[in-house]
Specification:
five-stranded antiparallel beta sheet; single chain; three-stranded antiparallel beta sheet; Jelly Rolls; 25% helix
């Protein structure tokens, strides 16, 4: 298997447990240099040089193998350049001082951001625009914290999966507006961030409720009983040519940037060939039943990830505990 060539057993276990793993120097320096030149020329994520980071490196074969050889074509990428934060803006959000963890804009992609089918209530029945894996390639040195590092809530993929399983067990639908996740409508203003919301309702609105109290050193904004808590994350220390693989359900974001140079990353979103958006209004259809299983069981699509036989039963126990 390709997996055996590029991921050790320990790395696979790390991905299963933490929801994230770094593969060192898996992308060649030549590919990185060509991509940097393309980024500097303002070429987009579909350019040959940027796409080569994935298609011309071992990442393409590795992700194909991890997802059972059945992956949708990858033709685009997110070019993520984070500039250093001016000193007087550090720990500031929308003009107000905030605790340090606030500089991490943690979220799960595609949740509580894309409008649903109701024009006058876009948060109602809003889709979950998910994927299977997030693959990020470092094009600059990020070996120290607070350099705009990619950051994750370790283990949050399991908590999020258990919560979606809990919502499914109550009849669905999944996501905001479903069981035990009240809608949190907001009107975006200049300077606000989709994952944070805005004053006075500042909260990690793109993270399922049970996961919001997680973090390596949680600090809080407001009172935890009104949902205004903010978890802190683990910054990933990477060098040029390193790649990070994160499960879709792993909460992620970028850290604050107090360094001197721009932080350059390129992200690819990889989908199993059966993966599609989750549409709450179609929850009971066969297509959405599959996506409900995918969002409730984080390794369902990852056929080459050998999960301990007790894993799924432990998810079930966690869901039963939440229901009691």
């Amino acid at each position: 298997m390709i997996v055996d060539d590029f991921m050790t057993l320990e790395q696979r276990r790390e991905l299963i447990k933490e929801g994230v793993v770094i593969l060192r120097k898996i992308v060649s320096q030549d590919l990185c240099r060509a991509a940097i030149e393309a980024v500097n020329r303002k070429e987009g994520g579909a350019s040959d040089a940027v796409q080569a980071l994935y298609h011309n490196s071992p990442l393409h074969s590795l992700l194909q193998d991890l997802l059972g050889g059945q992956v949708l074509p990858v033709t685009s990428a997110q070019i993520a350049v984070r500039m250093p934060t001016p000193t007087d803006q550090i720990d500031i959000y929308m003009g107000r001082p905030t605790p340090s963890p606030f500089d991490w804009n943690g979220h799960v992609d595609g949740i509580a951001i894309h409008p649903g089918p109701h024009e006058n209530n876009p948060d109602h029945e809003a889709p979950i625009m998910s994927f299977s894996a997030l693959v990020g390639v470092a094009l600059s040195e990020q070996i120290k914290p607070d350099c705009g590092n990619f950051a994750v809530l370790r283990g949050s993929h399991l908590t999020n999966a258990a919560f979606f399983a809990h919502q499914a067990s109550k009849g669905g639908p999944l996501g905001p507006g479903g069981p035990d996740w009240p809608l949190e409508p907001w009107h975006r203003q200049p300077g606000s961030n989709a994952s944070r919301g805005q004053w006075p309702d500042v909260r990690p609105r793109m993270i399922p409720p049970p996961t919001r109290s997680m973090g390596d050193s949680p600090r809080y904004v407001g009172e935890s009983d009104n949902g205004s808590w903010w978890p802190s994350a683990t910054q990933q220390l990477m060098s040029k040519g390193d790649a990070v693989i994160a499960h879709y359900l792993t909460c992620h974001g970028e850290s604050r940037h107090v360094g001197k140079k721009p932080r350059n990353m390129v992200f690819f979103r990889i989908k199993h060939h059966l993966h599609t958006e989750y549409r709450p209004r179609d929850h009971k259809t066969a297509e959405m039943r599959y996506m409900t299983e995918v969002l409730s069981d984080p390794w369902l699509e990852w056929s080459q990830i050998e999960v301990d036989k007790n894993f799924r039963s432990s998810l079930g126990k966690q869901t039963q505990s939440e229901d009691s």
